[in-house]
Write a structure and sequence with these properties.
mainly alpha
C-alpha cells in the first residue's frame, strides 16, 4: 500500500508540473523553429499534410510552410508566388506567441 501512495504522490506532482507548462506556446515556437529548418529550394520535403499523405494533389495549405521558410530567408517574391497567405500566417503566429507570453506573465505574477 505504501508504494501505491508514493506512486500516487509522484503522479500528482508530475500532473501539477505539466499542467503549468504553456503547451500552445511551446507548440508555436517549435513550429517557427521547424520552419527555419525547412529547405524550400529542395525537391523533396517532409509534410504533415493529411491530404498530401493520402495522395491528393491539391491542398489549400500546400506550400505554406515552404513559403514561410522563404520569408525567413528574405525571398519575398518567391514566398508570395508559392503561397500568398504566408506573410499573414507568419504575423498571426508571432502575435499569438506574444499574446501567450503576456498571458503567461500575467497569470504567474497576478493570477
Amino acid at each position: 500500500m505504501a508504494s501505491f501512495w508514493c506512486l500516487d504522490s509522484v503522479m500528482n506532482a508530475l500532473s501539477r508540473h505539466f499542467s503549468k507548462l504553456p503547451v500552445e506556446l511551446i507548440f508555436w515556437i517549435g513550429a517557427l523553429i521547424g520552419i527555419l529548418f525547412i529547405d524550400p529550394y529542395g525537391p523533396n520535403h517532409f509534410t504533415l499534410c493529411p491530404l498530401d499523405n493520402l495522395g491528393f494533389d491539391w491542398c489549400p495549405g500546400c506550400g505554406l510552410g515552404r513559403s514561410m521558410s522563404l520569408l525567413t530567408k528574405g525571398d519575398f517574391k518567391a514566398s508570395w508566388s508559392m503561397h500568398p497567405l504566408a506573410m499573414f500566417a507568419f504575423v498571426v503566429i508571432v502575435l499569438r506567441i506574444i499574446q501567450l507570453i503576456r498571458n503567461n506573465k500575467t497569470t504567474r505574477n497576478h493570477g
